[in-house]
Amino acid sequence: MSFLSIITYTGIFVFALTGAFKARAHKMDVFGGLVVAFATAYGGGTLRDLLIGIRPVNWINDRFALTLVISGAIVSFLLKNNENRFKRTIFFTDAIGLGMFTAAGIEVALRYGVNDIYALIMGVITATFGGLIADIFCNQVPNLFKKGELYATVCAIGGGLYLLLKNTNLNNNVALAICIVLVVALRIYSKRKRLTLPEI
Question: Residue 24 domain-assigned?
């Protein structure tokens, strides 16, 4: 299994956890949890594939990925209910998923001939739109649109650095890992320091 596949599958599991935790926080049943987990894990990647013309989209016939989504939902529903812990867990799993899907989304787009600028956009879409769909399902304002949240911004920064590193002699897997770590670190740091973008 390639490093990109490891990143992608880990991101799917982590985002499935995030979606299932959101469903639990909103008092959904198991089926609702599975739907939100599926949307969180697959939403961004599906939109990316549709935009750049990948057929079939990434999750079709991928039984392992589907197993990861179901496993993530089951794990989240087996844990003891604690609202404050859920909020912290959702934040950290979401941050990790952002990093992994930013890197994976950019790399997939590049492999299908998309230029650097649009590959970066595809990376941001891959990382953020699953969570956006899940938040809509949960009837809450998506993190992508919340005032005071550096969300897509940290994906763009990490993804931009990854594209710069690809033009150096650095090993590509190392560049992917740096992108992931930077996105996660920036997301956590910006939240704790309440860093925001200026209002329009």
Answer: yes
